Amino acid sequence: MAVFKGFPLNLLFASILLILLLCIQSGGGQKKKENMLGEKVEQMMEWSSRRSVIRMNGDKFRRFVKAPPRNYSVIVMFTALQPQRQCSVCRQANEEYQVLANSWRYSSAFSNKLFFTVVDYDEGADVFQQLNMNSAPTFMHFPAKGKPKRADTFDLQRIGFASEQLAKWIADRTDVQIRVFRPPNYSGTIALALLVSLVGGLLYLRRNNLEFIYNKTGWAIAALCVVFAMTSGQMWNHIRGPPYAHKNPQNGQVSYIHGSSQAQFVAESHIILLLNAAITMGMVLLNEAATSKGDVGKRRIICLVGLGLVVFFFSFLLSIFRSKYHGYPYR
Fold first, then answer.
1. How far is CA 319 from the centre of its chain?
2. Angle between helices 88-105 and 163-174 (to 10 degrees)
3. Does the pLDDT value for residue 60 go beyond 90?
4. Which of 118, 121, 186, 323 could lock onto 80 through a cystine, CB 3.0 to 4.6 A?
5. What span, in angstroms and rounded, lies between the C-alpha atoms of 199 and 205?
């Protein structure tokens, strides 16, 4: 007792008792936290066993995605799938999202470290307001620890929403590798078979007169169609899988021209294709009006039509530049 000489024993015992109570309370709090985490993981696994993509409202989102404790990552698609929203892009993105979630759910690497969820605007408008979100679809990653960073929001406008692109983004954010398995799609094979059958049937019916094969105009038109398809960005659409257009769920406004010079919508490529066809046809008609030796009135009409197509091309092109570059023809 010499160590505690001059120190009141009752104060010493009180300090020891307080320390013991704090330890017991801390241990109880940790145990409660572990039990809560176990219940959340168990509930998420149960929902995931029923459906690869877990539907969430505002309460479920705040409890299982935002609130701690949580040792699992969550991928959330914020969307607007109700028919009255008329969001065709949301439906297309949802199909790709379902393919990705099913690939993860039925893979051998599936675990409780990653879950796929969806929040529909009509079921969780408060979540959209809480996150200051005014467009759909949007993909976000909520990490197991900490708050989402800028890179945890998927750049859909630039990359597109193909399942493979989403899988690469998830691998970067979570280190979880997902191999995408798509259900068999025989539409391409059937279309190719029908095309071959049609061409073969046409050649068989015209087997006694194959002069059309040597028709320069026909081959020129076919070549122009290929050129128009390639220069309008159809290959980019095939690789990136962008949405056809974008509809703002807040005001219903539909955008057919992408606001960035680094991306495009499918509708935009169709517009470019028509513009390329217009300027080509306009130049051909102007050349025809200048070189032909037919009736003057007919040549004048051809010239006016050609000029109209050229004017249409440049006027529409100017409007596209204004849409993409916010009123400036060049950046």
1. 26
2. 60
3. yes
4. 121
5. 10
Count CB atoms within 10 A of the CB of residue 306.
Answer: 21
The string of pLDDT tens digits covering residues 20-46 is: 666 655 555 567 778 888 899 999 999
If phi > 0 it is left, if psi is from -120 to 50 it is alpha, else beta; for residue 252 that is left
Whether the CA torsion 185, 180, 269, 134 is positive or negative: it is positive
CA quadruple 62, 68, 70, 73: dihedral sign:
positive
Give the model confidence (pLDDT) of 67-83 as tens digits: 888 899 999 999 999 88
Considering only CA atoms, which of 141, 135, 116 is closest in space to residue 55? 116
9/191 Cα distance (integer angstroms): 93
Residue 237: name the closest of 192, 267, 274 by CA: 267
Q: Which amino acid, one-letter code, is at 198?
A: L
Mean pLDDT of the region 41-65:
92
Better-scored residue on pLDDT, 193 or 30 = 193
Which tokens in the block code for residue 257? 């021209």
Neighbours of 249 (CB within 10 A): 23
Cα distances from 317 to residues 280, 306, 310, 311, 312, in angstroms, run: 14, 17, 11, 10, 8
Q: In what order do the strands lie in the sheet with 53-56?
A: 53-56, 114-120, 73-79, 138-142
> What confidence score (pLDDT) does residue 24 get?
57
User: What is the CA 76 to chain-centroid distance, rounded?
Assistant: 13
CA angle in degrees (0–180, nearest 5) for 197-203-207: 145
Q: What's the confidence (pLDDT) of residue 328?
A: 41
* CA gap 120, 81 in Å, rounded: 7
Higher pLDDT, residue 293 or 137: 137
Closest CA to 77 of 144, 175, 163, 183: 163
Of 144 and 239, more confident:
144
Q: Please, how many CA atoms are within 13 Å of residue 292, restricted to the half-sphere of its CB?
A: 16
Rounded to 10°, the helix 296-325/266-291 angle is 150
Residue 327 pLDDT greater than 50, yes or no? no
Give how far the C-alpha of residue 174 lies from the chain's centroid of Cα atoms, to the nearest Å. Answer: 19
Rounded to whole angstroms, the Cα distance separating 271 from 286 reads 22
